[in-house]
């Protein structure tokens, strides 16, 4: 889809990658393998060995970079069609919401069990620690049974979450690692109102902050007031509006001038975000 010039691949994905490699227009010396813990045989470049001999000088290309340049593409999951490559600029990473919400400093440790191809982990996670100068503890996949042990082991002060992750933790038996936990703040989306306060109280969490957005979206909502169950507030006037729709057909209601009708407070509608240049 993206026709990459270089590929970095995890060792666990090597068997699947080998099956499609011949179909790709990529040379063997353009594929770098990381974390090949099972020592799967391959003809590509071992990334970790390559690092031992690489220069530490800053490449000239970084001098010429600016905020409008693309830092990366993050592919959507494809739930509403084929996966789409969403552009992530340098500016978006530098303006990472997580950094501002967490008020990160070099004394913090941000923990995430989300994959880095997810924008929450990459933008609000990696982008935030780059801004705050703190450590980033990354787990390969979420484990409810090992979560609190991980927090204690790395001294995490902040955690990224998504969806029902907090509920999974609530459903677990008491953990010996919760007492005197270093974890104070969590940032994510999807924490239900019915368990919000219970979650904070049981695990001694000081702050839970939420946002609502999309990798390929043009706007977002933010709940930095920590109101349980609130999706969020509009941050910049004029960038997002809620308009009336027919809930049965999904069609927009319009006024006599054929304009969309903005919802009043308390009314249900469709969120529209302004697409900037």
Task: Please characterize this protein's 3D structure.
Residues 2-256 form the AMP-dependent synthetase/ligase domain. The protein has 277 residues and is α/β, with parallel strands linked by helices. It contains nine helices and 14 strands. The mean pLDDT is 89.
Please describe the topology of this protein.
Elements: E1 7-10, H1 14-20, E2 31-34, E3 45-46, H2 47-51, H3 60-63, E4 70-75, E5 85-89, H4 90-94, H5 97-102, E6 109-112, H6 119-132, E7 135-138, H7 147-154, E8 158-160, H8 165-170, E9 185-188, H9 193-203, E10 207-212, E11 221-223, E12 233-234, E13 240-243, E14 270-273
Parallel strand pairs: 1-2, 2-3, 6-7, 6-8, 8-9, 9-10
Antiparallel strand pairs: 4-5, 10-11, 11-12, 13-14
GO molecular function, one term: long-chain fatty acid transmembrane transporter activity
Domain AMP-dependent synthetase/ligase: 2-256
Pfam family, one: AMP-binding
Question: In short, what is this structure?
Answer:
With 277 residues, this protein is of the alpha/beta class. It contains nine helices and 14 strands. It folds into three domains: 7-54, no CATH class; 89-235, ANL, N-terminal domain (Rossmann fold, 3-Layer(aba) Sandwich), CATH 3.40.50.12780; 237-277, no CATH class.
List keywords for this structure.
single chain, 277 residues, alpha/beta, Rossmann fold, 3 domains, seven-stranded mixed β-sheet, three-stranded parallel β-sheet, 9 helices, 24% helix, 20% strand, globular
